[in-house]
What we know:
alpha+beta, Hypothetical protein af1432, globular, disordered N terminus, ACT-like_dom_sf, EC 3.1.7.2
Amino acid sequence: MPPAPITPPSTQDGETTRVAAVAATPELTAALNDLRGKLAVYLEPAEVDRIEAAYHFGAAAHDGQFRSSGEPYISHPLAVASTLSDWRLDAQALMAALLHDVMEDTAISKQEIAERFGKPTAELVDAVSKIGRLEGQSYEEAQAENFRKMLLAMARDVRVILIKLADRLHNIQTLGTFRPDKRRRVARETLDIYAPIANRLGLNTLSRDLQELSFQNAQPMRYRVLEKALRNARGNRREGVSRITETLRRQLPLMGIEAEVMGREKHIYSIYRKMREKHLTFSQVFDIYGFRILVKDQPSCYLALGALHSIYKPVPGKFKDYIAIPKANGYQSLHTTLIGPYGTPVEIQIRTHEMHHIAESGVASHWLYKDEQTLGEFQQKTHKWLQSLLELQSTSGTSSEFLEHVKVDLFPGEVFVFTPQGKIIGLPRGATAVDFAYAVHTDIGNRCVACRINGEPKPLRTELRNGDQVEIICAAHANPNPGWLSYVKSSRARSQIRHFLKSRQSDESADLGAHLLAQSLQGFGLGLEAIDEATWERFMRGSGTQSKKDVLTDIGLGKRLPAIVARRLASEHESAAGMDELPAEKRKPLGPIIIHGGEGVVVQLAKCCRPLPGDPIIGIVRKGQGLTVHTSDCRSIGHARHESDNWIEVEWDPASSGSYETSVRIVAENRRGALARMTAAIAAADSDILNLQIDADPDVCTTLQFTLLVNSRVHLARIMRSLRHLPEVVRISRTRD
Length: 737
C-alpha cells in the first residue's frame, strides 16, 4: 500500500540516526529477531548479516513513513521478507523484499541499491516497483501496464512474482484500516490476478489464503454468514469426520498400506464458489470436510485407492487421476469421492509426500526441497508457462490486451486430448479443435481448415472432451478466420489469431494506401516512385509518423485522406526541385481502383447491398474501416453522398473470381415437391445454398428467401432464369438487406 509522502534521507549520518530510532520499537525488534532465527537455519552467517544490513538501509529510507494502521512502514517489507524466509528463498530475494518499495516511495535509486547490495538485488527491486502513472492514463490502463511489467519480469526470474505475492499477502492481511471501496478493489484485483498466479505456480496454500482474505474483504457480509453456518455445522458433522478418520487409520495398515490420514475442512471461499457455480444452498453442500492420505510412493497411491473403494462405495464419474496426467501447475494426486457412513459424499485425495510438498509449495519447493529428480518435470512445466508469457507479449498489442490473454490462461479448467501420435495436450474447458491446432504449433493453427475427432470429420468449432483424439487437416494457402475469435478459449490461440489478422490488415492497408496515394499523385503529374526518401522524411517529421508504411496504412484505413497527403508530398517534392505546382487543367485524371473480390480484411464488400462482379459499384473510405464497396444504387449510402472526399471510383476486375453471397426471394404456389425442384435447379446451375428462410401460408403462396453463393451477376441471372421456368414460381427477385 502506498505510504504517506515523506522527505527521504539524504545523508549517511542522518540515515544512521533514523535507523536507530525506527529499529528501537519492540515490535520491529521482535520481528527482526524472528527473521534472523529463520534465516540462520539455512543461510550462512555472512548472508544473514547482509540481509540485516538491507533491513537497516530500508528502515532509514522509509523513516518518517507510516502505514494507515499507524505502524512504521518498514514493518511491511519485514513481513514480506519473513514470508519469503518460510519458503527459504536466497539472500538476494530477501534483500530485495526488504527494499522492494524504496525506489517507488523514496529518493533511493536503482544504481545506489546495486552499489550497496549487488546488481541482481537491484534488478529484483526494479522488477517489483510500479511504473509511474502517465498523464491522461486511466487507473485500469496504469494497472495493466504494471501487471505487464511484473509478469514479463517474472518470466525472466520467478523470484519477482514470489516477492510480489508475499507483498500482496501482507497487504491484504492488513486491509482493515482502508475505506470499503478500496478494500473491495484490492480484493477483486487479488482474486482476478494474484490468487490465480499463485495457483498456476503451484502455491496452493498461498492461493487459498489470498482467496479467503479477498472474499472476506470483497463481500464481508456473505463471508460472516457462511462462517457462522460453518461453525454451526462443525458440531453436527464432527462425529462423522472422526468415524471416517478412525476407520481409514485402522483399515489401511491391515491392508498393508502405510499411510498418514488427515481430515480437513474446506475453506469458506471454496464453499461459496461451489454454491454459486452449482446453485446450491449451504445445507446442500455435503463435502465440507475432505480427507488427505499421504503414502510412501506412487504404486501405494493406487493400492490405497483400491483399499478405499473396498471400504466405502465410490461415486461414479467422480474419480480423477492427476498422477498419470498432472495439472498444468504440476499438481499430482488421485481424487475420488466416496459415500460415507451417513450416506453423504466424502472427497479424498491420495498422494505421496513429495507430491504433497509440490502441491502446497509449488515453485517455492525449488528452494524448500532440493530433490532435483522429483522437481525436474515440475520446473520444466513452470519454465514453459513463463516462456509462453513472453510469446503472448510479442503477439499482444496493448497492455490491456496482454492482461486479458493472461487472465484467460489463468482460468483454464481441464480438458486433456490426444494427438494421433498419442501425445497428451492440456486445454481450457470448452476448447475447440482450433485451440488444439494452435497448442500443437502456430503454423498448424494458421493453416488448419478441417479436423477429425476420434476418426470422424467434425467442424473446427466443435468443443473437445476428455480423451478425444484430434487430427488437424491443413491447407498450404489457408489463413485464420476472424470468426474463430468468437469461440476459441485458449490465450495462445486468441493472441496468435489477433496477431495474424493485425499483421495482415496492416499489410493490406499499406497496399491499399499505396494504391490510393499513387492515384492522388497522378493529379500532380507524379508517380509514387518519384517521391524520394528525403521528401518522405520531411513529410514524416511534419506529420509525426514513424515510417512510410505507417502513412500508407493510415491512408488504407481511412485515417488520412490520400488527396491531402499527395498535395503535401507534391509540394515538398516541387519545392525541393525548385518547381512550380502543376496547373489543375494539366493534371492527369485519377483512374479507378480495380476490385478483384478477394482483397481480405481492408477491402470489404458491403453487407447491405452485397455487390457482385458485373454490378456498377462505388467505394467509400471510412476512418478505421478501410475501403467498403457498395452498388451504385445502394439505398443505405444515400445520406452519405455529400462526403465527396471519401468516395473512390472503383471497378471490377474483368477476370475476378471467387464466390459471393447474395439473396433471392421467391414467391411460389404450394405444390408437392416444389422445394425439391427449386433446390435441384439451383444445384444444376452450379450454386450452393447457404441459408433458407420460409414464410409459409398454406391457403395462398409460400415466400422463400434463399442465400446463395454465386460468382457473378451473370451467374445469378442464369440461376434466376432457371427458377423462373418452374411452373410453381409466381415471382422471383434479387433482394438486399
